[in-house]
Design a protein that fits this description.
Blueprint lengths: L8 H11 L2 H8 L6 H11 L1 E3 L14 E3 L2 E3 L3 E3 L12 H11 L5 E3 L6 H7 L4 E4 L5 H13 L4 E5 L9 H6 L9 H8 L2 H15 L32 H10 L3 E7 L2 H9 L4 E4 L13 H11 L6 E4 L5 H9 L4 E4 L1 H33 L12 E3 L11
Parallel strand pairs: 4-11, 5-6, 6-7, 7-8, 8-9, 9-10, 10-11
Antiparallel strand pairs: 1-12, 2-3
Helix pairs in contact: 1-14, 4-14, 6-10, 11-12, 13-14
């Protein structure tokens, strides 16, 4: 496939919509309830404009960034995504390989299907994002597995005490545990490439995918309920459990799903290594504010050197630069990377990364900034809308 014809993330998104069965695409692209937060994630970028400088000398532009003493090629990474096997055979491996080849961070979701041990052998340096129960005995067993797998960065999810109300999944018959249905069979027949390359290939080579990384052991097939349930004990998770983890976890510890400055302050006070500002891609609390809108107040609430990361709605290099200017160290992208993997595996993800990096490089030059470390709020101008991040309290 000639990937050069894909010029933007939107090109991959349109192609993925055609490639995937309707209910699979709806699961990937959809949000909770009325998709208010899903839309807000994109609209936030339009409320913020650039204020470029000229005649600055922009030869030799650098977009590399440093995090915890390690330098990455760009301020982007691959966000954690669950059950990606429904989009591509060995999808997590394609995502991780592309990230490693581009020298970018990759976060493995706890709801993924390829065992973390296998993925870590293939692509060392992966991060792990967990959906953790408020139970120290179970947490301890999970930590033992993570340490055996040589995971260095642990990301704890904070915004899933209960399931989001994803009505679009229910209407389309997409349920977890996954239940084959006549609707899926018919939709699969209408998408023969997906039927052969994804469903049949996966079943023939490795059987029904499993929930391999939810807990301390490899779980059941995605057609069955895990013994502990999907969310068993998550409603009990508190900051005290984060402190418990901090005392016992030797690697980097990050909390994901932060939108309130008080929670960011709490993370810094408890000696965590960073936060990911996120509303779970608009898939949990509908009406939760866009992460970009939350970023300025969070930046003001924590020490200047406390690492802030972000995800939610990013589709262009320009979007990435707006977040970096507001204080984000790394911007994680989920759906865009998954669309690339859906179309062409590792090569598709690599093409998405190339597009984003080219946009970042070009826009830095147009902003008159040769080194991304010099990008700050003075390069931004609030838009006319009332929801501009720079005007947020």
């Amino acid at each position: 496939m000639n990937l050069d014809r894909f010029l933007s993330v939107a090109d991959f998104e349109r192609a993925a919509r055609r490639r995937l069965p309707r209910l699979v695409h709806a699961f990937v692209a959809g949000g909770a309830e009325d998709s208010v937060s899903l839309r807000a994630n994109r609209e936030a970028f339009e409320a913020l404009m650039f204020r470029p400088r000229g005649l600055s000398g922009v030869a030799g532009i650098s977009q590399s960034v440093e995090l915890w003493g390690r330098r990455y090629a760009s301020p982007i990474g691959v966000a954690p995504m669950g059950v990606t096997a429904i989009c591509r055979h060995e999808c997590e491996l394609a995502l991780a390989r592309a990230a490693r080849a581009a020298d970018l961070p990759f976060i493995l979701s706890g709801a993924s299907t390829m065992p973390m041990e296998q993925l870590q052998r293939e692509t060392p340096g992966i991060w792990y994002q967990g959906y953790f129960p408020g139970d120290t005995a179970r947490l301890g067993r999970i930590l033992q597995r993570l340490e055996r797998a040589a995971i260095d960065v642990l990301v704890v999810t904070s915004d899933t005490p209960v399931a989001g109300n994803r009505e679009n999944n229910l209407r389309n018959g997409f349920l977890i545990p996954f239940r084959p249905s006549a609707r899926l069979a018919w939709d699969g027949m209408l998408h023969p490439r997906w039927l052969v390359d994804v469903l049949a290939r996966t079943l023939l080579t490795s059987g029904v995918p499993r929930f391999s990384n939810l807990y301390e052991e490899i779980g059941p097939p995605i057609t069955e309920e895990p013994a502990q349930g999907f969310r068993g004990g998550r409603e009990l998770l508190t900051w005290e459990h984060l402190s418990w983890l901090r005392e016992r976890w030797p690697g980097r510890l990050v909390v994901k799903g932060i939108l309130h400055p008080a929670d960011a302050r709490e993370a810094a006070a408890r000696k965590l290594d960073g936060v990911i500002v996120s509303n779970h891609g608009g898939r949990q609390l509908d009406g939760a504010m866009a992460p970009l809108l939350a970023l300025p107040a969070i930046k003001a609430a924590v020490p200047a050197d406390f690492p802030l990361m972000i995800d939610g709605g990013f589709r262009r290099g320009a979007d990435v630069l707006k977040a970096v200017a507001l204080g984000a160290r790394i911007v994680f992208l989920g759906r865009p990377m998954l669309y690339g993997a859906t179309i062409a595996g590792q090569g598709g993800v690599g093409r998405v990364i190339d597009i984003l990096q080219a946009e970042i490089q070009r826009n830095l030059a147009l902003l008159g900034i040769a080194d991304i470390r010099n990008l700050g709020e003075d390069s931004l101008q609030p838009g006319q809308g009332s929801c501009s991040p720079m005007s947020s309290p």
